Amino acid sequence: MTVTDAARESVSSALEVTPVESHLHPKGSFEVADHPAPTGREEIWRFTPLRRLRGLHDDAPFLPSATSCEWNTPEGVRIEGVDGDEARALRGVSGWVPNTRWGARVLAEVESTLLVDVPAEAEVAEPIAVRLHGDDVSVTEAGHIVLRFGRHSRAVVVLEHLGSSTMAQVVEVQVGDGADVTVVSLQDWADDAVHLTHHQALVGRDARYRHAAITFGGDLVRMDANVSYAGPGGSAELLGLYFADAGQHIEHRLFADHDAPHTKSNVVYKGALQGQGAHTVWVGNVLIRKVAEGIETYEENRNLVLTDGCQADSVPNLEIETGEIEGAGHASTTARFDDEQLFYLRSRGVSERQARRLVLHGFFNDLIRKVGVPSIEERLTTTVEAELSKNVLRDDVADVAVDEVAERVDTAEVTA
């Protein structure tokens, strides 16, 4: 079912959508025909192995869902699947005009929407948990989720993805004025899953929005996490944690569109890679428009390569149209274990296995604490430990590097 012209006009008028001029974000359109199928030569697709997407980026049929969905319903919160006119009115509620073929298809063809509606002034004490579990990877499917938070509300939503699935997904978030909202998206799929997902948030005046993208599982996961502002004073914190094993492709793309004055964005993503063919991609982009005076923004990506045979691509970008800003910057690093740190720990009686565990936990722990959801933080610590045990804690591989450092240190002491 297509989005009606009346619905599009209503959404655009209400949110005063301004066309994005960023070179990393092509002009949007609700019409599927306006988006040719990507070839892989486009800037926004050059890192993604299209053949592994099983046609989601093009014209794979969106079949009846093989993914179950369940949730808790805290008092005062409305959570239900809606369709018909109500579902159509929610297409583009975040102000997003699709700039990909698959995104336009999701909004045009998916007939129902899962709506999580938190009323104004509500303070939801417990996290709202939505659990999606895929049961058939051969079924190509699509879903649309809307998270709507009223003025001055406070809530946490956790989207959990498990099992085997081939899914295209659009998640739209509308954060009301003065609201304080956290959205956590956990991709803990089985090894055969493919997940193509776009998260778009519209942050209201003086509102606070935190988005955490956590990716461990899946054969291929590509997530866009975008944010724009409906008024001055809004702030967004975009966090990410990922761990890629042999053969996995994990891709995160961030876009903070500062289209209102005195807004803030802070991006921190950290990832680790291990195993032959593990590939991670992080592309961060901040667009500061002419009207966005007095903004503050910073984006940071850190990657830790644990074994040979991995590849980490990290591309930070800043596009600035006004010099009247408080501050803007970015940082990106990709490195291996610090052998001297390991040697320092070993020289004080810490085993090689424990030394590597301590270094990697130290790498992730500050970010895990920022998520702000205790149950998720505990789970992440456990999952990182499980990932470590797969490869990085092998003593026979690790001892070689440390012995080489010890030899260099001994030689330096003799020379001195």
Automatic annotation (TrEMBL):
Protein name as catalogued: Fe-S cluster assembly protein SufD
Membrane-spanning parts: none
Top-level taxon: Bacteria
The organism's taxonomic lineage, starting at the top: Bacteria, Bacillati, Actinomycetota, Actinomycetes, Propionibacteriales
Entry-linked Pfam families: SUFBD_core
Organism: Nocardioides marinquilinus
NCBIfam families xrefs: sufD
Protein family membership: Belongs to the iron-sulfur cluster assembly SufBD family.
Segments of this protein annotated with the region Disordered: 1-36
Domain SUF system FeS cluster assembly SufBD core: 140-363
